[in-house]
Structure formats: C-alpha cells, structure tokens
Amino acid sequence: MDVIEREIAGEIERIRQIYCWDVLRNRSRTVQLPGRKCDPRILETFLGYEVQAGKKRITCPDAVSARYLKIFVELGFKDVQIPYDPTRTALIVTGLEGALSRIKELLHYFIVSTWLAELSTWMLISGFLTHDDRAVAGLAKKIGEETYFHLKYAHGWLRIIGEA
After folding, report:
1. Cα Rg of the chain, angstroms
2. CB 103 within 8 A of CB 75
3. CA 111, CA 5: separation in Å to the nearest integer?
4. How far apart are CA 63 and CA 48, in angstroms?
5. How far apart are CA 143 and CA 131, in angstroms?
6. By the 8 A CB rule, do 125 and 140 touch?
7. pLDDT tens by residue, 17-62
8. How far apart are CA 52 and CA 47, in angstroms?
9. Could you read off the pLDDT of 83-97 as tens digits, one per residue?
10. DSSP secondary structure string, the chain?
11. How far, in Å, are 13, 32, 51, 100 from residue 16 at the CA level?
12. Are 114 and 147 within 8 A, CB to CB?
C-alpha cells in the first residue's frame, strides 16, 4: 500500500506545483467556491458556462474556465485563483485533470485491494467460529464484526468513487 500512497502524494504534489508555478506567479483573479466537497457538473447556458456545485452556480465565460473551476470545487476549496488569460488556463487544466483522475484511479485500486484483503481474512477466520476453545471462537467473532464494518465501509467508498 505504500506504493499507492506515494503515488497519490506525488499527484497531489503535481497539482500543488501546477497551481503555484503556473497560476499564482501570473496575473490571476480570485473566484469564490462553496468550500465543501461535492460532485460538480458543468452546464452550458445561453450566457456561457456554469459550474453547478450543489445549489450554487458559478458563471464561467468559457468551457476551459468551467473545467478548471470544477476541479477545485470537487476538491472542496473555498476560493481559487484563476488566470486572466484563458489560453494559459487551457494549458494548465489538462495537467490538473490528469492528476485528479489518477488520484481517483489510485484510490479505487486502494479500496478494492483493501476490500479483497479483508474478505480473504474473514474467509480464513470464519472457520474458527465454532472452535472448541471459547476464547478462539470469541476472537473469531470479534474479528468478523470488525471485518463486516470494514467491508461495509469499503463498499460505500466504492459506490462514491464509482459515481465520480
């Protein structure tokens, strides 16, 4: 699992570097965001584009700006700097989307791996539920309860990631 954690940390660092080097060092403006994680959608309107984040809509002049803001809304930022120059935003947004997509992919892999490990542990331990020694049977029951909780938790995360 350390490999997955290092790769996720690397993608987070990549997002940080893109934001620090390509956005903050150039002319940019601040856009207020909802400040909580959600599943934003990009809507095409007569006046341009909007990023719908829950009940809030953020107006954008073009699709690239909408894609850029969608990333930071999804991450739960309260505000974000966006370059004034849309051509610069177009160069930046691809790298940000790639990093976020890779993080989601790695999280999915991590959750599936954890789920399979828990399931195999339970399959092994469940054979001791009817053991003659009450201490061993009790321990197997406690491990089973904990495994059930973990599997249920992992199932919820898989459902959330599958929707994204």
Report:
1. 22
2. no
3. 12
4. 8
5. 14
6. yes
7. 999 999 999 999 999 999 888 889 999 998 889 999 888 999 999 9
8. 15
9. 999 899 999 999 999
10. -HHHHHHHHHHHHHHHHHIIIIITTS-EEEEE--SS----EEEEETTEEEEEETTEEEEESSHHHHHHHHHHHHHT-SEEEEES-HHHHHHHHHHHHHHHHHHHHHHHHHHHHHHHHHHHHHHHHGGGTT-SSHHHHHHHHHHHHHHHHHHHHHHHHHHHHHH-
11. 5, 19, 22, 11
12. no
Between helix 63-75 and helix 86-125 the angle, nearest 10°, is 40
User: What is the greatest pairwise CA distance in the chain?
Assistant: 73
Cβ neighbours of residue 87 closer than 8 Å, sequence gap 6 or more: none
- Strands 56-60, 79-83: pairing kind: unpaired
Tokens 């092994």 found at: 124
The pair of structure tokens assigned to 144 is: 């089973």
